[in-house]
Amino acid sequence: MSDYVAGGVPEGVVPRTTDARNTQEVVALVSRRRQPSVAVWGMAMLIASEGTLLSGMIASYYYLRFTTPTWPPRGDPRPEVVIPLILVAVLATTSIPMQLAAFAARTGRLMATRLLLVWALVFQLGYFVYEVHDYARQVHHDPISTDAYSSIYFTLLGADHGHVLIGILLTTWLLWKLRRGLTMYRLNAVQVIAFYWHIVNLLTLVIVGVLLSATF
Amino acid sequence: MATTVPPPASAEPLVERLEQMWQSRPGILGWVMTTDHKRIGLLYFWTTLVLFGAGGAEALIMRTQLIQPNNNVVGPATYDELFTMHGITMIFFFIIPMTTGAFGNYLLPLMIGARDMAFPRMNALSYWVFLGSAIFIYTSLFAGVAPNAGWFDYVPLAGPKYDPGHAIDFYCLGIIFNGISSSLASANFIVTIFKLRAPGMSINRMPLFCYAQVAASFGLLFALPSLTVATTFLFLDRTIGTHFYDAAKGGSTLLWQHLFWFFGHPEVYILIVPAFGIATEIIPAFTQRRVVAFPFVAIAELLVVFIGFGVWAHHMFATGMPTVTVVFFAAATAVVVIPSTIQVFAWTMTMFTGRPRFRTPLLFICGFIFMFVAGGLTGIMFLAVPFDQQVTDTYFVIAHFHYIIFGAAVFPIFGGMYYWFPKVTGKLYFELPGQISFWTIFLGTNLLFFPMHIVGLEGMTRRVYTYPGGLGWGPENLAETIGAYLTALGIVVLFANLVVSFFKGLPAGPDPWHGATLEWTISSPPPEYNYAVIPKVSSAYANWDYPDREEDRRKLASAVMVLDQGHEQPVSSPVDGWWTEIIEMPHDSPWPIALAFSMFLVFGALLFHQWIVAGFLTIAVAYSLLGWHGTEPQEAE
What we know:
- By secondary structure, chain A is mainly alpha-helical.
- Chain A has helices at residues 23-31, 38-66, 82-93, 95-106, 110-141, 148-177, 184-212.
- The termini of chain A are far apart.
- In chain A, 38% of the residues are buried.
């Protein structure tokens, strides 16, 4: 195999998934992996696609804003500033336990991985429940069909909440999956779901910033 | 009968073991649950052919209607549906799935020396979602509510006020559904190309076909979301009363055009770039010469798509945009000429300096170059903004983009069908009927599309179901219709030839053309595991590197580098192509089709505004996803 890997490294250096049948073997295998897994590449593609989707909506927001004389138009409430900023900051902190969970999984500490995921999930769920409640309240006062401003405001915010919901479902699924130990597949899953959350947290910060820009 | 490359006697048990391990289930279940990229490629191929037939029939009905002034074969409403469905079908349901789904799926893993795509089940999912979206959108035609506002679906015509009913809802949901399929496929292609290349196949040794596929995939990945945003906004405007495109409530009709063309123009290059890739494989095989200026052609393929993202507003010169914007987009459009011309020069110089054998595939590529240059020259004319404003919405535009789309995308598809027919079937096609089909199609398309330039300049507008007599457009329209039927005849000859060749053709052998790339090193049709020994590559013309191929055979004889502990596939570093990991690939799975079917039901519920039903049906989607991820590759055996 030596001529199939860079620098003529001796045979056996290329990690082989079929060799990993338990946690110790998975950890040993991953420590020899020098490049991001194919799963990480797949997640990068999903993020590229979803990021472009939300960028398209953000671009539409500013297109509508710059073709409208006053923004938000008269009659629409100005978005609240303080509470959304606090909430999004709380959500952003969940990147820490998610990344720590990825590290813990890489070193085979299964219980630590589970606990860190639960920590992240509690805050993610808290954020989501409050935001959905708040979304319903705002739609009640200023329906989505009021004008173009409310249309783009609620669509952009709703699309972001949708991504948070998918993240919550992924974290929950991961916890359920990890109940029966660590495999290569689950280890990859922890890493890519942590990656997903970093980007969703970043996008949420950006989107909240965009929506709050109407107050300035 | 398949033409096989017999393994050395010592390797027979090994090859048998690989065959058993990679074998699909027998019968129809094997096709429904397949994750084999070759089977998925063939499914794409047959499905897109059926849809090509539908799109072609729509075109023929339109041409029959326009054969003479004041004709009455179809009425205006039906005509609207016909040109809309024709555009949607040919773009979303024929060319893209044919060049990427069928050609890309079948050939890409073979060309890079891989055993399958990076995500085999996702690959199956993209096919089943594609099939679902095709059924979804064609249901509208049979239900008598086909989309009728053009494939570009401009608002306010497509808005709730002027187009009530379900026609445009079918369009919005069908396009979003289809976009999911294309996004999945393009993500899969990108990861496959960057991560599954054979050892030694560094980026600069990758066949040009793969460059074209990666360019088209990046194009799709970044262009489709814009269309998804546009159609989502339109669907919301039509169903829950938002006002994205409603000028009276602060919306903007031009927003639709910006979002649509930000997708729509890159889309044009996404259509033709994989066809460029086909051309750059056929030319070296039939001239027995390496492509001139390889790195420039590779970069040009990527640049065409990249620049394609900066030119969208040239479709909007007649909308009254500010002069600065118009001039910027005209200049940006001029830049596209550079990478396009680099490729044309490279193709023609390769032919001039090689020893061309004008077999049918190469004839189609010559036809393609002729049509592409002709369509490109009229394309440049649109840069002159006053000229563009004069000919906007006339048949001149139709002539231009059909020279590009039929000439530059469909001709290489036909050429590619002939070129890879021996690889896929193990049979040779009949040459004389092949050449007859080429000349019939070539003459037919030119007779069909060239007179459109003239009537366009004379003022004949597009999307109108008839025209009055006495304007002098009759003879040209008659010629166009004759051309249309001639083209259809040529296409019938083409497929008849391929069908007869499938049953009566001579055995092709593994490499009838002395092709340049890796797929010609293995049996025709290829075995399910593709490569027993993972080949080592030292140039972009791997099949011409005889010492490497000798080494493959030696390795097989001594059972070295045969990955046979499961569905194994090496993963390589993205730039150099050295192995970094050996992973196990999933087996046949029922979940991709289950997931696609449950998504189909969700889209059906959304069509009828049954939000709660759609919500419940997402449980089926979630269940399919859980089932999908219930089996891990390591647990599969």
